[in-house]
């Protein structure tokens, strides 16, 4: 068994939807009123997630890499 070095004192944590790191909920970036709802380490991860989602959802027809 390995204890994860997450926040002490039972602080709730979330998993970043972009890099899958665990971050304290209080420190998480949560976009409000966004098309994609999730928790992120910060704005950078959020933008990365958006770019990824766009690529999947609005990929060029024909299926290029
Ligand atoms: Zn992240």
Description:
This protein is α+β, with helices and mostly antiparallel strands. It has one helix at residues 43-57; strands spanning 13-15, 22-24. A two-stranded antiparallel ribbon has the order 1-2. Strand 1 (13-15) and strand 2 (22-24) form a beta hairpin. Helix content is 23%, strand content 9%. The chain binds zinc ion. Zinc ion binds next to loops.
Gyration radius, in Å:
15 Å
Low-confidence stretches: none
Work out the strand percent.
5-15%
* Secondary-structure element pattern, one letter each: EEH
Which shape, going by the Cα principal axes? elongated
The helix content is 10-25%
Can you summarize the main beta sheet? 2 strands, antiparallel
Give me the secondary-structure category.
alpha+beta
Strand arrangement in the largest pleated sheet: 1-2
How is this structure best summarized?
Helix content is 23%, strand content 9%. It has one helix and two strands.
Draw up the topology in text.
Blueprint: E1 13-15, E2 22-24, H1 43-57
Antiparallel strand pairs: 1-2
This protein binds zinc ion (ZN).
Features:
65 residues; alpha+beta; elongated; binds zinc ion
């Amino acid at each position: 068994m390995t204890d994860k070095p997450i926040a002490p004192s039972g602080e709730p944590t979330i998993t970043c939807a972009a890099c899958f790191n665990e971050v304290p909920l209080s420190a998480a970036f949560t976009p409000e009123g966004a098309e994609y709802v999730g928790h992120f380490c910060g704005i950078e991860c959020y933008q990365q997630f958006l770019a990824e989602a766009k690529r999947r959802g609005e990929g060029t027809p024909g299926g290029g890499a």
